[in-house]
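Why do we care about 3D structure at all? Because function follows from shape, and shape follows, mostly, from sequence. That is the central idea of this module. The next example makes it concrete: a single protein chain, its amino acid sequence, and then its structure expressed as tokens.
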Amino acid sequence: MKNSLTRLFGYMSGERRGPLAAAVRAGLSVLSVPYRVACGMRLALYNTGLLMTRELDACVISVGNITTGGTGKTPLVVWLGRWLRRRGVRTAILSRGYGGKRRPPEGGTPSGGTPNGGESDETLLFRHQLPGVPHVVDKSRYKAGLRAIAEHGVECLVLDDGFQHLALKRDLNIVAVDSLKPFGYGRLLPRGLLREPLSALRRADLVVLTRCDVATQEQVAEVERRLRRWCGERPIVLSEHRPVALRAHGAPESRPVEWLAGRRVAAFSALGNPEALPRTLRALGAVTLSHEAFRDHHWYTEADLAGIARRAAEAGAEAIVTTAKDAVKIGAFPASGPPLCVLAIELAVTRGEELLMAALERVLSK
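And the structure:
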């Protein structure tokens, strides 16, 4: 899986050269044309009112992105949920749900060790990291919002992955942009990773640049400069994904992240950005022997886990590391391999927190 993703990104980015790579890029460019037309027609239908945008009797804060793949959106949703909870605002998270309700494949076990009947990995993660904050899943975010208001009496709704969901009116449009891969190679799907043309960023009220700690100051400044073309003077907030602990899977023990420095580890993950975990491990000084990348939202089978444990043991790894999003989908991990550790990550705002606070307070005051 990792090799196929790397190959595809190589075609998109232009790193892969030669006649075959050029032919693949040409084919992807042709396929991008109808996608661009469809994006434009859909936006026009909403702008002219032929497609309806509905309103809910609650404050709606949307968190989304303009590219496919991981931009750090989920930690930002968790950060907002915790901030709103501390402020005493009754809040719910609304999601479409990846692929709707689903059951793990045979042998796949989410946290607790038994297959559940239809919860996504985001649902499990939000339940673990935002206890007491309802998470309502429905293809219609409007219906999900009505349920959250009726059943939980919420005052604020955080719309997960909502930037392209134009059917629901929102009070604040937040877009997460990865500082290392900000603009999806500058091309629409499937030639690049853009969900919409960059001009769609004009709909954003506020941009949060993520993973700024692993980008250079020059890279962050260049991304900001390019964003200003589309966002004007709208606030741009800088953040980082800060590792806070290394927890033993299925046990209360934890270690400081400094334990990883110089340790030989194997890693695996199923994220939109397959390079996120190994990049973080390298920054922490870990000797990363291997990283197995699975498709985003992959449900791990017993065979998957047994293979990961066996290969890590053969490589001489002292530990196996995965993410919290992956860990919630894993019950018992094979005892035959090195211990499984979960790298806990939290979003930390490093610049512009007062701009984010002001925007949130402004919409809540309405």
